[in-house]
Amino acid sequence: MKIEFTKEWCLRMAQLEAETPSNFEVGASPLAPEETMEAAAVEQSAASGIVFGRFVRLMRRKQRLTVEKLAEDAGIDVVELVEIEEDSRHTPEPRTVYQLATQFKVPMQGLMQLAGLSKAKDARLVNEAIRFAARSEPVADLNEAERAALEALVSVLSER
Amino acid sequence: MSIDVSKVFLFDNSAKNLVEAELLDAIVEKQLLDWEDQWIPARDEVNRRLKAAGVDRSKWPQTGHWSWRDKQLGIKGSLSNPSFCVVHADETQGLMILDTLPSARLSSQAGKPIVYIDYLEVAPWNRKHLPGDVPRYGAVGSILMRAAIELSLQEGFKGRVGLHSLPQSNDWYANKCGMTDLGPDPAKQNLRYFEMTPEIAQAFINRGS
Amino acid sequence: MAAAAKKTMTLNLTDVEMDALEDLCQKKDLSKTAVLRQALRLYQAVEIRTERGAKLFFEDEQTKEKAELMML
């Protein structure tokens, strides 16, 4: 079958694709058994989603930035930033984590682990992350307890 | 076997201009040879870089295990599995296999036939994997998506399209294509199932106008 | 897909068959030709998989019991 494609349409779509951090592969792939999304893996990624999202939100508030401003400063997509902060199921793109690491001045490797993009090898980081999640509140002003919790997590992240 | 060729345009990200390419409504030996000779080595290179950057294996491109040769063998002669590819400069840039048998799951479209995208992959050099990656050509995936929609229209399926998205692609299908997320599907490794209504399909085609 | 030269076929259907066809057209929001095309595709798909050794089942949603379809 023949289809009519205009230059304008192709250009517009290329622009949209460039704006999107993600790729667009489709297909239920027959993954090797150890790499299938088992329930445990799904849960684990949801947990790291909560911690990472909260971390990003608090760091943003610490820097006194709106979501838009942070997205602009860090050179990342506003929609993705909102998803990171609000949707614990969202998996951030490696590029986005890299940009945020630069913006927040924390080591990339540590933030990648927090984001669930690389396997947490450091038990201290995992524990501190859990403590951080338990003490921090997603809304309201950054209070003393939150500030302390944030500093503690940042310091462990930076030890790597 | 007669193959239809449609003229398309890809965005060359280094030259910063549109280049002419072809959309073919078939996957033939040439595509499989390109996949073997060019996509696989490029994919291996990507995996090497991801490993060096410490990215967890579960976040590597999940298309890594795919064999397009096996897929093509599986659909040979099948009336219900149309396929498409995008070719530029004598190189295969994207591949897609469809299924015209499934029915829509969205309640507003329930029971009506849909074009289901079995597999869609663009060449490794047309994707972003790590910070700083710039895809060689843009619009390949969109062109294939559009082909699925146009086929759906041609078949009388009104533009309905469905697919299971690999995790890294959820954002594109939900936000940029405007598809409805029907949630994780336990029958497909908990991949999220997305569907496009006739209205959304029309909006996709009308983008940019 | 490929706009190869199409061949025309005339189909004689009984009243009952015609009713069934029209009913499917309604439900699927398809033309008669489209319904019959889908039927052909489905028949072929089942045949291909059966030849490869697969079996076609319907599963009861409630009981999860499978009832084997007779070899088509």
What does this structure look like?
- The complex is a heterotrimer of chains A (160), B (209) and C (72).
- Chain A has 160 residues and is mostly helical.
- Chain A has one domain (39-158): Orthogonal Bundle (434 Repressor (Amino-terminal Domain)), CATH 1.10.260.40.
- Helix content of chain A is 62%, strand content 0%.
- Chain A is elongated and about 60 Å long.
- The N and C termini of chain A lie far apart (56 Å).
- Residues 29-43 of chain A have low confidence and may be disordered.
- Chain B has 209 residues and is an alpha+beta fold.
- Chain B has one domain (5-206): 3-Layer(aba) Sandwich (Aminopeptidase), CATH 3.40.630.
- In chain B, 30% of the residues lie in helices and 28% in strands.
- Chain B has helices at residues 29-52, 68-75, 140-154, 170-176, 198-206, and strands at 5-12, 17-24, 83-88, 91-99, 115-122, 137-138, 161-165, 180-185, 191-196.
- In chain B, strands 6-1-2-3-4-5-7-9-8 form a nine-stranded mixed β-sheet, with helices on both faces.
- The longest helix of chain B is centred in the first third of the chain and has 24 residues, at 29-52.
- The N and C termini of chain B lie far apart (35 Å).
- Chain C is mostly helical.
- Chain C has a domain at 28-68.
- Chain C is built from two helices and two strands.
- In chain C, strands 1-2 form a two-stranded antiparallel sheet.
- In chain C, a hairpin with a 6-residue loop joins β1 and β2.
- Chain C is extended.
- The mean pLDDT of chain C is 87.
- Chain B binds chain C through residues 1-4, 25-26, 77-80, 82, 100-101, 111-113, 151, 155-158, and chain C through 1-4, 27-31, 34, 37-38, 40-42, 44-45, 48.
